[in-house]
Design a protein that fits this description.
binds nicotinamide-adenine-dinucleotide; alpha/beta; about 10% strand; binds zinc ion; 8 strands; about 425 residues; 6-stranded parallel β-sheet
């Protein structure tokens, strides 16, 4: 393996997380929490599917009991685009001013609220803040307003991260905005809100948790980077002792509850463990970073042609984030195995405590993942969602643009490596 050691190894890692409230009924206390910030007018941001569960209206009503005017915007687009974020920002500008924001939903609603908050408190337009090279990567000059994030999926961990993910339609590329000020002020995680998650959403978003945990656990160790000056530090600093702790815990919880939450969505204990797992994985990857499966997920989702997953809005073709991340994960971890065999074996043991070790230990983690993906009805590889061998060059090009993620991989990743991972991920079993 050709990993060059840094001349001046990093000796510092960082850790950030929002204030957090976890537990059944915690979403009934948001009015009190907002009152502590002295706010009068708040915008509650959600999507039509979550609005239909009634949870956003209940929360808005509860907030209004604290003499706070709470209005609902339920126009979030599932897997936000530059157009959908701009429309949401437009709406919030026209109906503002707002003293605070509350996001009720999955990553799509939470990320939309982050973008609204950023653009209503800072000058310029969306493109100014989007990561280089797609955007200008400008840092916000002003502080943002309080944002309370209330996840209703068990997946992204967006309630604790500093990023907002979006699809730039004209470029057919998924990218993001990343800055410490985007992190929500308070995460309110109420597992009872996740009980209505449809089976397909539970499966895909659960695979997102799993990949967050395993990718941050196998990410390059922070001391293998060159030492940064304080102004160069970014939220993602590589695997470190604190992110390891959260990732390991998340994997244990997934082992005990993931299949059960998919098969028996009304099992409150399994839902609660999945909500904890999503939070823990978010606290891990939100600091360590993710690598190859997430880098591959961007072109897989961005170049979709006509795949319509079960339990998601059917009007547009899409590959849900968690599904797009999982489809190349078994192959990606086969590829990274040699960088840290002990970590890959440990991840397999944590995720599949009852699985026998194969003779070839590099097969252990991929086989645990594939067994799970088959059980919860994830498509059998990128071929099953419509990609053909002739698409691989295009996909590779999209992945190679995600250098911010690829540099977190535990070994160098070339175009040929990525092409191999995609071609072996056409069919997984
Ligand atoms: N900011 C981050 O740190 C981060 C991390 C990973 C992914 N993401 C982004 O998050 C988005 C995906 O978010 P997600 O997987 O949480 O799902 P989502 O917000 O896209 O929602 C998926 C679907 O589930 C429905 N839904 C959600 N909760 C429900 C509930 N409790 N009951 C009934 N229906 C419900 C929604 O209406 C929607 O149709 C993607 O855009 C992805 O790129 C962000
Ligand atoms: Zn993810």
């Amino acid at each position: 393996m050709t990993t060059t050691l840094p001349a001046d190894p990093e000796a510092v890692f960082t850790y950030g997380a929002p204030q957090l409230k976890f537990g059944t009924g915690s979403s009934d206390e948001i009015g009190f929490d907002l009152a502590q910030y002295g706010v009068r007018r708040v915008l509650l941001v959600t999507d039509p599917g979550v609005a239909a569960t009634g949870a956003p209206h209940r929360i808005a009503e509860q907030i209004s009991r604290y003499d706070i005017d709470a209005q609902i915007f339920d126009g979030v687009h599932i897997e936000p685009t530059d157009d959908s974020l701009n429309a949401a920002i437009e709406y919030a500008r026209a109906s503002g001013p707002w003293d605070a924001f509350v996001a009720v939903g999955g990553g799509s609603s939470i990320d939309t609220a982050k973008a609204i908050n950023l653009l209503l408190t800072n000058p310029g337009e969306l493109m100014d803040y989007i990561n280089v090279p797609v955007g200008k990567g400008t840092a916000p000059v002003n502080l943002l307003k309080p944002l309370i994030a209330v996840p209703t999926t068990t997946g992204t961990g967006a309630e604790s991260t500093t990023i907002c993910v979006l699809d730039v339609l004209s470029l057919k590329v998924k990218t993001g905005i990343s800055h410490a000020r985007l992190r929500p002020t308070l995460a309110v995680i109420d597992p009872s809100l996740t009980l209505t998650q449809p089976t397909g959403v539970t499966a895909a978003s659960g695979m997102d948790i799993l990949c967050h945990a395993v990718e941050s656990y196998t990410a390059r160790w922070y001391t293998t980077n060159e030492r940064k000056r304080p102004e160069q530090r970014v939220p993602y600093c590589g695997a470190n002792p604190i992110s390891d702790m959260w990732s390991e815990k998340a994997m244990r919880l997934l082992a005990s509850s993931f299949r059960q939450a998919v098969r028996h969505g009304d099992d409150a204990a399994a839902r609660s463990e999945m909500a904890l797992a999503a939070t823990f994985a978010g606290m891990g990857f939100g600091n360590a970073g993710v690598h190859i499966p997430h880098a591959n997920a961007y072109p897989i989702a961005g170049r979709v042609r006509d795949f319509h997953p079960k339990d998601y809005p059917g009007d547009e073709p899409m590959v849900p984030h968690g599904m797009s991340v999982s489809l190349t994960a078994p192959e990606a971890f086969r590829f990274t195995f040699e960088a840290s065999p002990e970590r890959h074996i440990r991840a397999a043991e944590l995720l599949g405590p009852d699985t026998d070790r194969p003779n070839d230990l590099s097969e252990f983690l991929p086989s645990v993942l594939i067994d799970l993906m088959r059980d919860i009805d994830i498509p059998n590889g990128i071929g099953a969602i419509g990609y053909r061998t002739s698409d691989i060059d295009d996909l590779v090009e999209g992945t190679m643009k995600q250098q911010r993620l690829l540099t977190t991989a535990p070994r160098p990743v070339t175009e040929q490596d990525v092409a191999g991972i995609f071609s072996r991920s056409m069919e997984l079993w």
